[in-house]
Amino acid sequence: MEQEFVSSHGGTIAVTHLGDKNSALPHVIWGHGWDQSGAALLPMAESLGRFAFSSLVDFPGFGRSPQPPEVWGTAEYADAIADWLRSLPPRQLIWVGHSFGCRVGLQVAARHPGLLAGMVLIAAAGLPRRRSVRERLRLSLRRRAFKVAKAFVPEGPGRDRLRSRFGSADYQAASAMRPILVRVVNEDLGDIATKVNCPVLLVYGSADVDTPPELGARFQALIPKAELVVLDGFDHLGLLHRGRHQVVHNVQRFLKSLDRQGAR
Q1: Burial bucket for residue 230 (CB in 10 Å: 0-12, 13-18, 19+)
Q2: Domain residues for 153?
C-alpha cells in the first residue's frame, strides 16, 4: 500500500494505491461518498486485488485531504480528478464510486470523454427525488417552519443552531463544508448523464431510502450504455458492508465484460 498527495486545480487530493502499479491489470479509481473517505471503500478494493490495481481518493475536504480553495461543485471536483488521471501512465481506467463519488464520476466521464473505459456507480445520487405527497408536504412544512423561525433570529450562532436543527444529518455534520454540500445536493445531473459514453454498471440496494432504485432506473434510461443491478435487502451503506461481496462480484463481472469488448 502506497500513499501520496496530488495537487490539482488548487486543491490537494490524498490517494492510497493498492497492488502492483506495474502490472497490466486495469486501474480502478475509487470515489467515496459524502462525509467519508477512501477508507470506506478499502475492503472492496482489497477484495478486487487479483483483478485490478486500485487507487482510493480522499476528495478535497474529506479524509486526509484539505478543503478545496473555493466552494466547489461536482464539476470542479471532476476537473481536478481528471487532470490527475491524465498524468498517470497509459492504462485502462475504471471509476468505481459510491453516492457522492458517483456524482463526481458522472462529471468526469461527461466532461472528459475517452478518459474512462467504464464506470461502476454504487447507490448513485444526482437526480431530483420523486417524493410522495406526504413527503412533499412534510418537507414543505419543515422549510416553512425554518423560514418563520429565522425571521426572529439574526445571523450568527443562533441562526447556525437553527440551520443545524432543521437541516439534514449530512448538513448538521458538514460544518465548514456546508456551502459545498448545499451546492452539490442542488445539482441535477440528468443532462450530464446523457453525455456519458462509456459503459456503466449501476448498482443499487432494494432497501436504500437515500438513493432508492428508482434513481437507478432513471439513470439507466439516460445513460446510453448502462446496466442496472438491484441487490435485494441492502440499504445505502449496507452495500459497502454486508453487501460488499455481491458488489465486488458485479465489479469483477463488469471488468471481464470490458475485456471482452476490448478484444473484439
Answers
A1: middle
A2: 133-177
- Which run of H or E residues covers position 2? strand 2-8
Residue 96: Cβ-neighbour burial (10 angstroms; 0-12, 13-18, 19+): buried
For 123-154, the pLDDT digits (tens) are: 999 999 765 556 556 555 555 655 656 566 67
How much is the pTM?
0.85
- Characterise 19 by phi-psi region: left (phi > 0), alpha (psi -120 to 50), beta (else): left
- End-of-domain residue from the set 150, 177, 204: 177
Residues 258/199, Cβ–Cβ less than 8 Å:
yes
Is pLDDT of 230 > 80?
A: yes
How far, in Å, CA of 35 to CA of 62, rounded? 7
CATH assignment of the domain containing 96: 3.40.50.1820
Residue with cell 425554518: 146
In a domain, 248, yes or no: yes
DSSP 3-state of 240: helix
d(CA 207, CA 74): 26
